[in-house]
Amino acid sequence: MRIPAHSVCTAIRDDIVSGVFERGSRLTEEQLARRYGVSRVPVREALRTLESEGFVTTRRHAGAQVAEPTEQEAADLLDVRALLEPLGAARAAQRRTEAHLKVLRGLVRLGQERARRGQGEDLRSLGGWFHETLAQASGSPALTALLTQLRHKIAWMYAVEPAAQPVETWAEHGAIVDAVARGDAERARALTALHAERSLVLHRLKRPERGRVRVSQHVVNTAGARN
After folding, report:
1. Is 89's pLDDT higher than 80?
2. What count of Cα atoms within 13 Å lies in the side-chain half-sphere of residue 193?
3. Strand locations in the chain, DSSP E?
4. Whole-number Cα distances in Å, 191 to 90, 113, 128, 169, 211
5. CA-to-CA distance for 192 and 16, rounded, in angstroms?
6. What's the CA gap between 34 and 218, in Å, rounded?
7. What is the model's pTM?
8. How far separated are the first and last CA of the chain, in Å rounded?
9. What is the tens place of the pLDDT at every residue in 145-177?
10. Which of 24, 79, 150, 200 has the most CB atoms in a 10 Å sphere around its CB?
11. Where is the HTH gntR-type domain (predicted)?
12. Half-sphere exposure of residue 197, counting CA atoms within 13 Å on the CB side?
C-alpha cells in the first residue's frame, strides 16, 4: 500500500504546529518514515512541500530541520492575515453559495449557544471552522490555500487566549455572515478587518522549548492509499 505524500505532509505539519518537533530540531527521512510507518519516498516529498511552506529548512551538509522563524516573521503573519481575511470576506459576499451560507449560519448559531453557556472548550474549534468556511466561500482556491497556511503558521507561532467576551466575538461573526448574505462586500471587508484587529490582543508568542522530541499519537491518514 502506498501512502500519499500529502497525508504524510499533513502528519508532519500537525506535529510541527503542536510542538512535537521543536523549532530547530533535525528531521531525517529515516526517523520520519519510522515514526509514521511509511517509506522514505513520501517523506521526502512531504519535506519538500513543508520547506516551500516555511515549516522546514534544509541546510547543506546538515539536512532538514524545523524552521526557526524570527519574532518579526511571526508578527508579519498577523499583519498578512489582517490583509487577506477581509479580502476573503469581501470575495465571499460576491461569490458565496447557499451551501456556504447554511454552514456559516449553523456555526454562528452553535458558537453563540456555546458562548452563552460558557462552553469555551468548543469555541476555538468552531471559530476555526467558521474562518475556514468563510475563506472557502471566497471562491478563490489560491486565497483559501494562503489563509489555511497562515492559520497553521499562526497556530504554530502563537498561543491564543480565550476571548474575554465570547458572546461579543460570535456577534461579530454573525454580523459578518449577515453582510456576506446581503452581498455587501465592503461591509463584510470592514467587519472582518475590525474582528481581526480586535483578536490581536489575544495572541501570545510561543517561546520554543529546547530538548527532546515528544511522543506523537498522530496516525497518518491512509485514505486514498493505493494497493
Report:
1. yes
2. 10
3. 26-27, 56-59, 63-66, 158-160, 203-205
4. 10, 21, 17, 12, 42
5. 29
6. 13
7. 0.83
8. 4
9. 999 999 999 999 999 998 889 999 999 999 999
10. 150
11. 2-69
12. 7
Split at pLDDT 50, 70, 90, the class of 216 is very low
CB 216 within 8 A of CB 20: yes
C-alpha 124/C-alpha 116 separation (Å) is 15
What is the chain's length? 227
Joined grid coordinates for residue 8: 504524510
For residue 224, give the C-alpha cell: 486514498
Q: Is 119 helix (H, G, I), strand (E, B) or coil?
A: coil
Three cell numbers written together for 199: 483578536
Name the grid cell of 121: 472548550
- Cβ contact 104:134 at 8 Å: yes
Looking only at the bridges linking them, the beta strands covering 203-205 and 158-160 are: antiparallel
- Residue 36: what residue type? Y
